[in-house]
Amino acid sequence: MPSAYSMVMLAASLILVLMFSSSVYRSWRVDQLWVMLQGVAVGWLTTVLLIVIWLFLTKGSADFSRLWVTTWAAATLVVLCAVRLVAYSVLRWLRTKGFNFKTVVLVGAGPTSEAVRDGLAQASWSGLRVMATASPEELLAQQAGEGARVDEVWICLPLSDEEGIRRTLDALRHSTANIRLVPDMFALKLINHGISEVVGIPMLDLSASPMTGRNRLLKAIEDYTLAALILILVAPLMLAIAVAIKLTSVGPVFFKQRRLGWNGDEILVYKFRSMKLHDEADGRVSQARRDDARLTPVGAFLRRTSLDELPQFINVLQGRMSVVGPRPHALAHNEYYKELVPGYMLRHKVKPGITGWAQINGFRGETDTLEKMSKRVEYDLRYIENWSIWLDLSIIVKTIFRGFVHKNAY
Known about the structure:
This protein is α/β, with parallel strands linked by helices. The protein has 13 helices and ten strands.
């Protein structure tokens, strides 16, 4: 029968293999904390799952208290994350004080080089220092000849300057520094940019959805689990709202509207009806305004408290929406704003959500100016670019405390 000692040894072996295979054991100098903690959590939870399977197969589960195993698994996860959090914080603090730094030489003087300088100046915690800016014609070896160590060389030349890039690489042919090319794309709207390999061909992603592979699976588990639990909890409330709508106004309980979903596909979105029945001009959708005369008494309360959005959890179970994501807009609004707001249609790289990063930051309700819509799109794209399960959970928590009732909810 497996002993506690053998289980601990198995856990140690598994977590080492899983952490190394998922690249958790590497430098996190310039990466985000939550990405590292996510890797640690996934590695440890996978370890615990494999141990449970091993105990089941060896019939050793009866030798261990469920309470002990659960406490051990939870406490170990907390300790693993806490140790990394302390090390991460200490190293960042040391770098702001001038310790544990790396030197960087920039090649090329222009907008890209200036953007890199500004970015590093604002990120003193990275410990990356710009030692010099050189042109392709200058000998970078001269910098090393003066006794200064060069850890990184970043080529900030336009991609069209093939000759400059070639001369730089030729000058660095004997250098042991890490050489990186910074694409001249700061003016572009990039979503989930990075490097992909397709049939063995490396490609630079300019605009791609983050919902692929493991991310898509995690997002689906999050959506279906939360939507099912929430619908079970609010079912009595939804029934009461439906009865109130039927008793106080003429018309259906639900308001249904076609909007754009993931990849720009049309979806049917549900809401509790909050307005009196009325006709709209073809191709025109009037947004709800403060003290809108079209609102029913019950509808005004539902919109102020965001309870009119509850039926959208049904949309989540249908696979049309997510719990968290950019809010879907009416088709007419999409047609109008997509030509006015840069990157507007990139919002549809993920499923639309019931709540989102823009909403908890105050950009919800009527978008009666181009500036308001531009800010909403800016926050939506920032969410897509930085998506994680942890970001989703933080948005949900913030929605609970400050997202239901808002001055712009009407």
